[in-house]
Write a structure and sequence with these properties.
The protein is α+β, with helices and mostly antiparallel strands. The protein is built from 20 helices and 54 strands. It has a twelve-stranded mixed β-sheet. Strands 29, 30, 31, 32, 37, 40, 43 and 44 form an eight-stranded antiparallel β-sheet that branches. Strands 9-10-12-11-15 form a five-stranded mixed β-sheet. A hairpin with a 3-residue loop joins strand 33 and strand 34. The protein starts with 8 loop residues before the first helix and ends with a strand.
């Protein structure tokens, strides 16, 4: 029985009659409106401008009908909401129990409540090229030309499509790697001295120091073609870097910049800056503010870190950007203007969107494939407007500068010849710790040599400037952890200033050189080109797409880090989901406590835990953290930080849930010593802890351990939290100490549950521990309540049945009397598990999905359909026709044990009974080795020795098959991985996809990588799709001209292949590398163990592998005939079902048992925070409480004792201008406290783009869209929106004045941020 508030027969009839009556009224109203259209003379008169022909009249009527249909759609949506609300709030008897069918399978009766899938036709237009309207597919004039002669868009050009796609560039480039002279990856550059007669060359030299917070410099500045120019093989933790280098850099910065107002400095990592800020004096803080205010110091990008852009999820990218920007505003009054990303290993198009929505106007990137850099340089396209592919009106455009050369270090930034540029890195003067690998050292600038040295440097400046479209030149001057000693500051600034003074004193040279910041460079460029900041300069190209995958030389592709250290990639996603859940629950709890006048009783101190967790998650997004490319000791430091924050977030969630579920809020009492709630895992697959999330981890590198709920005479309560903004129906599994358990709903109704054994291995049971699994419907962003009681065997407690196939293994089998268990040496035939939507068949030998018969697509002769007939002989009763109860799918399978063990593969063909064509699927496990030559795979690089070879196990696996009413699963135990494939027998999202988990252990591998390949008969034509940061989807194409490793891409949340009829999506709960190396294939790297460094600065291999769980959902969808796929479009979108499947996978419900107490537990009530679920294309990205503002009296004299404020003082206007040193003047100052919450929160909403062309019948869940409109004023149940203001992404800029209206609108794909106050 599903958890469902029953509906009494009388009330149910009343609701049905009422809903039907309203519907009839709506239909009759529509009829009257249509009749009025035909007879209203005013309407006929309004069409007088059209020709009096039948076609024009028909066109008029169609347009009027479309308008009326949209109005009717809104009416029906309101009716649906009303009926649902009445149904949900009604009470009555429980639903019927699940039952066995004639063939032995379980059947769950559908819920009596209806399900809706109502999508506005206008909302479907976006995926077809429009924004809420019909797309205008007009050919752009001259669209085939492109920049630099590159053909645009390959035969199609839409008026709404940017003129240059990165996919097209990659397809057209030869990637030939021709030797380019001194610029080895480029070409010779020539110029005429008269080129600048009309306009001087303006040079901005930007001193900077790249500080990696807690990991080593993979930066190419540490290498010149494999030779280390500095000893960069040491790698330190965040704190050690700070103590030994970073604090000295920043301390020297303050003093050295003040010595000369012409000096400049660029900084990017706010995490380091914030740590330093907390340890400096008020005088130094005031000096820093002056330097920021007068433009000598620029904080670029302003994120907590410089994040990786391949593996990070967009929630974490935004969160670390908000944390950094908010810190800068509170402490420095600074608002970043330009982005600076010199070290991420490739670039996602998500990041420019986020920066633009944060109101940055310009950005810089560096690590782009050397062949693409060469092409962009040759076509003068190194500066361009970066536009989102789904953007029809250029609102997402941001000006981007691509650095042209190999590295961001000094030898590769002044010009094309590193041998010359290195001579102008004055840290390398003779006698220092480092030197120039080209054996020509720098020389100090004197009166005697300044002319010659200036001429040599100017030649490099001029050559570099010939690669750009303007006469404004950017020259970075820095590297990793530079300027850590005062001597380097003096050497760089004194020598360069002498060069600048000489150059600027010679008008005939037509050059003006100076120190500058990044924003000063961009401002000068905009001024020279005559446009406003952020606008497109005339003639500059527009580009869309991303810059993956990256190669820095030869065939050395940085595609290994997409998978490196997957254990921590998974832990990152767990922390992210906990942080979002904690943010939302905390904000709601504080708002409700404030609304009830109980704010003083609520532990607002939890806000400090939230702040710490935000910064921990932000720190781990760094481009050497989530990437898995840090030293082993640094990885441990990261893991400890992640685990500590995870524990803190669980405490925040527990405290918030405790308050929100209490029926009597006056009875709330916070006792940190005895928490009211605990936390356990919501999902469980029946071998030892393989999947996700538990209440405790013994260490940062351990899988979660589960707590057993002890049942006795008193009832135990469990609170369940749904972190989704949609109502969800999910199976929640708990561990208990007795198989005789009764589960009751909040209303006291008995619920059907599935009882299973708890296994510690393939054949060993954990004594006195049992798993109880209950399907439950949870409110959107809300809390549900269950009650557990010991009970005798009753009709609602349904045991799982278990079969174990030993396949020759001599093992003892644990048994429990409570569960039927059959043990067989091997399976005589294939077997199946099924739910209401599909059947999946498995080989009795391998436990993998497997084909029965010679089924083939479009095959001829007697073989066609043989597998279907053989299947039918094994499935008596209604299943004989191989049809699925609700979807009409059939599965045919054949067993060939010898081939299965040799290839370890499984071929599945899925057929709908209404189609002749079968869907085939072949799943294989593969092994990649690495090269035997000098260059081998490492943490960064993927350099396979050949194509992948089949994984061949030493012996057949032990199989365990569990079947029950609410889920069935097959577990296969191999030497290097354990596989569990589960089917949920529920209507809706849970039952529509195949749940797959792989517990991977390759700790005995030597230079091997384990991959999973899914091969289907989908005619993908060499194309596939991967997501970018979970935010958008990018079309990929397998390029045969590139090596195998170049065709791998990051997969943070999903990848899919498709043809005109079907789409297969692999959803993932952790970032991994993915490719499609052949038609119909998806291949994902599960883990990699490599024994050597790959010469990119780490100095270690990957030898610290952990037992890692990789969790997936496999979703097969059919495309409807009315929405055929359009492969030529560069944009693609998941379906709404696919979006929801991804969120179900990444944000499962959390189970919080009420702690066992001596006294009776207080009354608990479910918590429904939303008056109604959000439209299903809206995602509530975050509800983030902002820090408090406090007005305090302070002194303007920095030496006055009044300034002894807490360390969390975040902003001060002290010591500005000439006021420092004057007698103290009392004033009131607004400060921010990191440890105290304000009444305001940041509400972030994302309206997702989706593809309507995939089948949406009988989905079993409720879904409506609203054309981007949302009434926030009535969204939160029991709370009013008392203040609402739209802002930029990171809240630094208000986009409009606060308004009394709380109705908002979002375009598809857009993220909206609102400063919100609930009361």
């Amino acid at each position: 029985m599903l958890v469902h508030v029953g509906v009494s027969m009388k009330l149910k009839k009343q609701v049905t009659v009422c809903g039907a009556a309203i519907f009839c009224v709506a239909v009759f109203s529509l009829y009257l409106m249509l009749d009025r259209v035909q007879h209203d003379p005013a309407r006929h008169q309004s069409g007088g401008n059209f020709p009096r022909s039948q076609i024009s009249v028909l066109q008029n009527r169609i347009e009027q009908l479309e308008q009326l249909l949209e109005e009717n759609h809104e009416i029906i949506s309101h009716i649906k909401d009303s009926v649902l609300e009445l149904t949900a709030n009604a009470e009555g008897p429980p639903a019927l129990l699940p039952y066995h069918t004639a063939n032995g399978s379980w059947a769950v009766l559908p819920e009596p409540r209806p399900s809706f899938f109502s999508v506005s036709p206008q909302d479907c237009q976006f995926a077809l090229g429009g924004r809420g309207q019909k797309p205008e597919l007009q050919v752009r004039a001259g669209a085939g030309a492109g920049v630099g002669g590159v053909s645009c868009c390959r035969g199609w050009a839409l008026s709404r499509v940017p003129p240059w796609q990165m996919l097209t560039v990659s397809e057209d480039l030869p990637f030939d790697n021709v030797e380019g002279g001194v610029w080895r990856q480029g070409f010779d550059i020539s110029y005429s001295p008269n080129d600048w007669d009309a306009e001087d060359l303006q040079v901005f030299v930007v001193p900077h120091s790249h500080n990696d917070p807690g990991e080593g410099p993979a930066g190419p500045g540490a290498r010149v073609w494999g030779r280390l120019s500095e000893d960069r093989r040491w790698i330190k933790t965040f704190d050690k870097y700070y103590m030994e280098q970073t604090q000295h850099i920043l301390n020297s910065m303050v003093s050295k910049l003040q010595e000369d107002p012409r000096r400049r400095f660029l900084w990017a990592e706010v995490s380091f800056f914030a740590k330093w800020w907390d340890n400096i004096s008020a005088q130094k803080k005031a000096a820093v503010r002056r330097l920021v205010g007068n433009g000598q110091l620029e904080i670029a990008t302003g994120g907590w870190v410089m994040p990786d852009e391949a593996n990070s999820h967009y929630f974490a990218l935004i969160d670390q950007l908000i944390e950094g920007h908010q810190w800068l505003e509170r402490n420095l009054g600074a608002t970043p203007r330009s982005g600076w990303a010199v070290d991420p290993f490739g670039y996602s198009s998500t990041m420019p969107y986020l920066l633009r929505r944060a109101n940055l106007t310009s950005m810089l990137i560096q690590r782009v494939h050397y062949a693409i850099k060469k092409h962009f340089a040759a076509t003068h396209s190194l500066e361009f407007m970066w536009r989102q592919m789904w953007d029809p009106d250029a609102s997402t455009d941001i000006f981007c500068h691509m650095m042209p050369f190999y590295s961001y270090d000094v030898p590769h930034t002044c010009g094309p010849d590193p041998k010359i540029c290195c001579q102008f890195d004055f840290k390398r003067l003779p006698g220092g710790r480092i030197n120039c690998p080209w054996k020509v050292p720098p020389r100090a600038i004197t009166e005697a040599n300044v002319a010659d040295r200036a001429a040599l440097l100017l030649d490099q400046y001029r050559k570099k400037s010939r690669l750009f479209r303007s006469n404004v030149l950017l020259v970075p001057l820095g590297d990793d952890f530079r300027y850590d000693k005062p001597q380097e500051w003096d050497a760089q600034f004194f020598n360069y200033q002498r060069l600048f003074d000489f150059l600027n004193s010679k008008p005939e040279l037509h050059v003006q050189a100076q120190f500058g910041t990044l924003s000063e460079y961009f401002d000068a460029l905009y001024k020279r080109t005559g446009v406003e900041p952020g606008a497109r300069p005339p003639g500059f190209p527009v580009l869309s797409g991303d810059f993956f995958s990256y190669a820095d030389r030869e065939d050395h592709y940085w595609t290994g880090y997409y998978t490196s250290r997957p254990f921590y990639k998974s832990l990152d996603r767990v922390l992210e989901a906990h942080l979002r859940g904690a943010e939302v629950l905390y904000s709601l709890a504080v708002a409700h406590a404030r609304h009830s006048g109980l704010a003083g009783q609520y532990p607002v101190s939890d806000f400090a835990l939230l702040t710490e967790a935000r910064r921990t998650l932000g720190l781990f997004q760094h481009h050497d953290a989530i990437t898995g490319t840090a030293k082993e000791a640094v990885v441990v430091d990261y893991g400890v930080r992640l685990l500590r924050s995870l524990v803190s977030l669980k405490q925040v969630i527990i405290n918030a849930a405790h308050y929100l579920v209490l029926g009597d809020k006056e009875a709330y009492e916070f006792d940190p010593g005895t928490p009211f709630l605990q936390m356990v895992s919501p999902y469980y697959i029946s071998w030892r802890d393989p999947v996700v999330w538990d209440e405790s981890r013994s260490s940062h590198d351990a899988l979660p351990e589960r707590t057993v709920i002890q049942l006795d005479s008193s009832p135990r309560f469990v609170v369940l939290f749904n972190p989704l903004e949609q109502e969800r129906l999910s199976v929640v599994s708990l561990l208990v100490n007795s198989p005789r358990v009764r589960v009751l709903s909040e209303a006291g109704q008995p619920l059907s549950v599935q009882i299973s054994a708890h296994w510690s291995s393939a054949t060993n049971l954990v004594p006195d521990v049992y798993q109880v699994s209950v399907p439950i419907r949870l409110p959107a962003l809300g809390l549900g309540v269950l009650q557990l009681q010991p009970d005798l065997d009753g009709p609602y407690t349904l045991p799982s049945s278990v079969r174990i196939y030993l396949n020759g293994a001599k093992l003892s089998i644990g048994r429990q009397a409570a569960f039927p268990l059959r043990v067989m040496d091997s399976s005589p035939s294939d077997f199946a598990i099924s739910n209401r939507y599909m059947q999946v068949w498995f080989s009795g030998l391998t436990g993998l999905l497997k084909v029965k018969g010679q089924a083939r697509v479009g095959g001829e002769g007697p073989e066609k359909g043989t597998g279907i007939r053989r299947l039918c002989t094994a499935i008596p009763g209604p299943m004989c026709a191989c049809r699925l109860t609700h979807r009409g799918l059939g599965v045919s399978i054949n067993s060939s044990q010898a081939d299965s063990m040799a290839q370890l593969s499984a071929l599945t063909s899925i057929r709908r009974v209404d189609e002749e064509q079968e869907q085939q699927m072949d799943m294989k496990f593969l092994i990649y080795g690495t090269r035997t030559s000098k260059d081998k795979s490492g943490a960064y690089l993927f350099l396979p020795d050949s194509e992948a070879k089949p994984y061949v196990p030493k012996k057949p696996p032990v199989l365990r098959v569990t079947e029950g009413p609410f889920f069935s699963e097959v577990a296969a135990y191999y030497e290097h991985f354990h596989q569990v494939i589960r089917l949920y027998n529920l209507p809706g999202v849970e039952g529509l996809s195949l749940d797959m988990a792989f517990l991977v252990d390759i700790r005995d591998y030597v230079n091997k990588e384990l991959a999973l390949r899914i091969h289907t008969d989908i005619d993908s034509k060499g194309t596939f799709f991967t997501d970018l940061n979970g935010f958008q989807v990018q079309l990929r194409r397998y390029l045969k001209k590139l090596p195998l490793q170049a065709n791998f891409y990051p997969m943070p949340v999903m990848a899919y292949i498709q043809d005109a009829q079907r789409r297969l999506t692999l959803h993932t709960a952790q970032a991994l590398g993915v490719s499609s190396l052949g038609d119909g294939q998806l291949e994902v790297i599960l883990d990699r163990r490599l024994m050597q460094d790959d010469n990119r600065g780490l100095g270690q291999g990957l030898k610290d592998n952990k037992i890692t769980c990789n969790h997936f959902r496999l979703l097969l969808e059919r495309r409807t005939m009315s929405h055929e796929v359009q492969d030529e479009r560069p944009t693609s979108y998941p379906s709404l079902l696919s979006h929801l499947t991804s969120m179900y996978l990444n944000m499962p419900p959390l189970a919080l048992p009420v702690a066992k107490r001596q006294a009776a537990s207080p009354a608990l009530r479910s918590f429904h925070p939303l008056a109604s679920p959000l439209p299903c294309d809206f995602h509530l990205l975050n509800l983030r409480t902002l820090p408090a503002e406090v007005s305090v009296p302070v002194s303007a004299n920095p030496h006055h004792q009044v300034l002894a404020l807490p360390p969390a003082l975040l902003y001060s206007a002290l010591c500005s201008g000439q006021k420092c040193g004057r007698p103290s003047i009392a004033l009131a100052l607004t400060v921010f406290q990191d440890t105290l919450p304000s009444a305001d929160a940041a509400l972030l909403l994302h309206r997702k783009g989706f593809d309507c062309g995939l089948e949406a019948k009988n989905l079993g869940f409720n879904c409506t869209t609203s054309q981007g409109k949302l009434a926030l004023g009535s969204l939160f149940h029991g709370l009013d929106v008392v203040f609402l203001q739209p802002t930029s992404l990171t809240l630094l800029y208000p986009l409009a004045s606060p308004s009394n209206s709380t109705d908002i609108f979002l375009e598809p794909m857009e993220i909206g941020t609102f400063r919100l106050r609930l009361g």
